[in-house]
Design brief:
Blueprint (H helix, E strand, L loop, with lengths): L12 H10 L3 H15 L5 H8 L3 H20 L13 H12 L7 H12 L5 H11 L16 H10 L11
Helix pairs in contact: 1-2, 2-4, 3-4
């Protein structure tokens, strides 16, 4: 026969059942169920608990140790990786924003990549720069599309009068 649990659960059964109904992740639900079953006396043995949860006994032991060390907060804590350190620092980003707001701006995203390489000695991929400028900073490049030198200005003016843009008011006679 297995030895009984040597664990004092400080939370009430009502609090645990309310927390169970409010949980969003299955990891939290499993861990709260573990405590609720012990608190209500439904489970008295370690082996039975691991069978009900469908987890290995070592996992249940680890969860119980976490609870003993730091309580409910420590048990429900889920560690996440911090991710990569961004190549473009906040200072670089603010200088880039200023330069994008200036009338000269940049002619292409490739120019921004070169500017970062020259000014800050940082190698950044084109795709990264595009995503930063277009979606995070929500900026656009200042240089307009090139216009042909052979274009007839009278024909352009006539076209603008005949077919106004959706933003300009339409002239009706």
């Amino acid at each position: 026969m297995a030895r009984p649990f040597n664990l004092e659960i400080s939370e009430s059964a009502e609090y645990l059942s309310k927390s169970l109904s409010k949980t969003r992740t299955s990891a939290e639900k499993e861990r709260l169920l573990l405590l609720w079953w012990i608190k209500t006396g439904q489970v008295t043995q370690h082996q039975e608990l691991s069978q009900r949860l469908g987890r290995d006994g070592s996992t249940v032991t680890r969860w119980l140790q976490k609870y003993r060390q730091g309580g409910l907060g420590k048990l429900l804590e889920v560690k996440t990786s911090p991710g990569a350190v961004p190549k473009i620092t906040l200072e670089m980003r603010s200088r880039l924003e200023e330069k994008l707001k200036s009338p000269q701006g940049f002619g292409s995203y490739g120019e921004i990549v070169e500017w970062l390489k020259q000014e800050w000695n940082v190698e950044v991929k084109y795709k990264t720069v595009y995503r930063l400028v277009r979606y995070q900073l929500q900026a656009k490049l200042k240089i307009p599309r090139p216009v042909s030198k052979q274009q007839d200005e009278q024909a352009v003016n006539l076209f603008k009068k005949t077919f106004p843009t959706p933003l300009s008011p339409c002239k009706t006679s």
